[in-house]
Amino acid sequence: MSHEGIRILNATEAEREATQEQLKLPPDAVTPAKVRVKKSEGTGMEIDWRDGHTSTWSFLWLRHGCPCATCHEERDAAGRAPGIPKPKPQTLLPMYEAPIKPLEVSPVGKYALRFKWSDGHESGIYSWEYLRRQCQCAVCTAK
Fold first, then answer.
1. In what order do the strands lie in the sheet with 44-49?
2. Closest CA to 44 of 28, 26, 63, 29
3. pLDDT class of 24 with cuts at 50, 70, 90
4. What is the CA radius of gyration of the chain?
5. In what order do the strands lie in the sheet with 125-127?
6. Among 4, 19, 73, 115, which one is most buried in terms of CB atoms within 10 A?
7. Cβ-based neighbour number of residue 66 at 10 Å
8. Residue range 43-90, pLDDT digits in tens
9. 53 near 43, Cβ under 8 Å?
10. Is the pLDDT of residue 108 over 90?
11. H-helix or E-strand containing 108?
12. Domains of the chain
């Protein structure tokens, strides 16, 4: 007897799935009307969503908000929110670090973007839903 496609959830997993389903954003809220990656200016990225909302992120925020498993787990373990950098060790004379910037930006299907960063990192896939949930505007951050 085959049990393919059958999942048995414990109470916590079932509650998490139910909560995620309730919090699902409407399609227009996670569908970009226009995406501007300001690579030449070095400032960041803007998305105009189909529902009329506009979101803006700096490249530094995007790098520190990387959604890949490694970055996500490290942030969770440290108790940091996406976009918050790791604390730097205190030194007598801080070393200069060139600002992190994207070297390449490419679409991933019709649902996300992938950045290749100047620090060598490139495993994060920034889905439209993730980006909308991480909107940095005053309205969204007040919620």
1. 32-38, 44-49, 54-58
2. 63
3. confident
4. 18
5. 102-108, 112-117, 125-127
6. 115
7. 22
8. 999 999 999 999 999 999 999 999 999 999 999 999 999 999 988 888
9. no
10. yes
11. strand 102-108
12. 27-85+98-142 (3.30.2020.30)
